[in-house]
Every structure is written in structure tokens, then in C-alpha cells.
Design goal:
This protein is α+β, with helices and mostly antiparallel strands. The protein has one domain. Helices cover about 20% and strands about 30% of the residues. Strands 1, 2, 3, 4, 5, 6, 7, 8, 9, 10 and 11 form an eleven-stranded antiparallel beta sheet that branches.
Length: about 230
């Protein structure tokens, strides 16, 4: 059971825009980032502290926060004492040490989206995405030659930005209720509500015709779970 602190300035909204704001592009091994470009953003910390505006992005190896330093190099920012990250119009929190996007909220209860790279598929199907990987190399992520690691210079990365192999992407939805992360699947929600609310949940899912990959449908379910 994963637990996460949810401490961030509350806004007067119940449902955030659900459309993806990042441009449609394909991350690749030389540019393994969620956003096509580093984007202006702010990092919030415990104690109502926040950073100045920074150039931010999310590295798909671990869904960690990267920023551009004053020296033009790319640095990793750990999640210690970070309560919220805003990148452009998108808002994130760390859950299980990974940045997840906030899609909807009921108070401090959240519907979030984890968008990550499927590096296992990339390794196992090396031929489909570029040069093949032998069995030994496929067990070693270093064989993918990922960019953005070990504090690289932004300029060099930009030169190689389009030279990598396409990274297949995976999206997973979660609810965060009372600080607890719950898979937004029928099995995950049934386990969370237990026998006490099992009948009410069954009736709700039937009446609302809940679709487990539809964000508006999951936002309705969040309201039920937050009661």
C-alpha cells in the first residue's frame, strides 16, 4: 500500500481541465522527457515555500523532476519536501516518488495520471524501435543510452534531440484518498471500499456506467470515493 503526503495550496476548483496540454510528440531515448521542451514552472515546498520560475521537465526514467541550472546543465530535483509542481498549466504531486498529474480533486482527494515510458517493451522489442538488443543488453537499461542522465549540457542534448529510438508510453490512473494511492481499476476500487460499501459501489458503477479509461467518468467516481 503506497502512501503519499498531499500538501498543496487549495484552489477553488473541483475538476481541472482533462485534456493533455503537452504537445503531441514521441519521446525518444535521446530526449526521454514527457514534454517536448523544458517549460516554465514552479516548485512548491513544505512551509508554503516555493521556487522562482524555472525551466522544468519530467524525465521518463522514474518520472522525476529535471530543471535547467544557471550553468546550462540539466539537474535532477529530488522529491524531498516537495508538495506540488506546476509545469505550464499542469499541476503534479509526487506519489510513490513519481510525478503524477492532478486531473480532478475533491478537497485533498485526487484523481491523478501517471504517464511513463515502457522501457521493458523497448528493450524486448529493440528491433521494432531501432537497432536490436542482445539478451544481455536487454537486461541493462544502460544499453538504451538514455539522454538526460548524469547532469548533461542542454545544448548537447538539443543537438541529439531527434536521434533516439521512440519510447512506447503507458498511462495509469490512480485515486489518492486520505493519502492512500489506489489503482483506478474495478479491482483496486473494490479492494479499497471493502464489504461496507460494496453494494453502494456496485450500484454507482451500474448507474453511472463507469468507464475505467475515461477521465470524466473517473472524476465522478472520485466524488463517490471521497464521501
Amino acid at each position: 500500500m503506497n502512501m503519499v503526503k498531499v500538501i498543496f495550496p487549495l484552489y477553488l476548483f473541483t475538476l481541472l481541465p482533462l485534456a493533455a496540454s503537452a504537445q503531441k510528440y514521441e519521446p525518444n531515448t535521446r530526449w526521454p522527457y514527457l514534454y517536448q521542451n523544458f517549460t516554465k514552472g514552479v516548485v512548491f515546498f513544505e512551509g508554503n515555500q516555493k521556487s522562482s520560475q524555472m525551466d522544468l521537465n519530467i524525465h521518463l526514467m522514474g518520472n522525476v523532476l529535471h530543471y535547467i541550472g544557471q550553468d546550462g546543465k540539466i539537474y535532477k530535483n529530488d522529491d524531498q519536501k516537495v508538495t506540488r509542481v506546476e509545469i505550464g498549466d499542469d499541476a503534479y504531486i509526487f506519489s510513490d516518488h513519481k510525478l503524477v498529474k492532478i486531473l480532478a480533486n475533491e478537497g485533498t482527494n485526487l484523481l491523478v495520471l501517471l504517464t511513463k515510458g515502457n522501457f521493458d517493451a523497448l528493450q524486448q522489442n529493440g528491433g521494432a524501435y531501432g537497432s536490436s538488443l542482445n539478451s544481455s543488453a536487454s537486461r541493462d537499461l544502460s544499453s538504451l543510452d538514455l539522454g538526460g542522465l548524469d547532469t548533461p549540457e542542454l545544448g548537447k542534448m538539443l543537438q541529439e534531440k531527434n536521434d533516439g529510438r521512440t519510447i512506447p508510453m503507458v498511462q495509469q490512473y490512480f485515486f489518492i484518498i486520505g493519502g492512500q494511492q489506489i489503482e483506478a481499476t474495478k479491482k483496486g476500487v473494490e479492494k479499497f471500499v471493502g464489504e461496507a460499501k460494496a453494494d453502494a459501489l456496485k450500484q454507482f458503477l451500474k448507474e453511472k456506467k463507469t468507464k475505467w479509461k475515461d477521465e470524466l467518468s473517473l472524476a465522478q467516481l472520485l466524488q463517490f470515493l471521497a464521501q
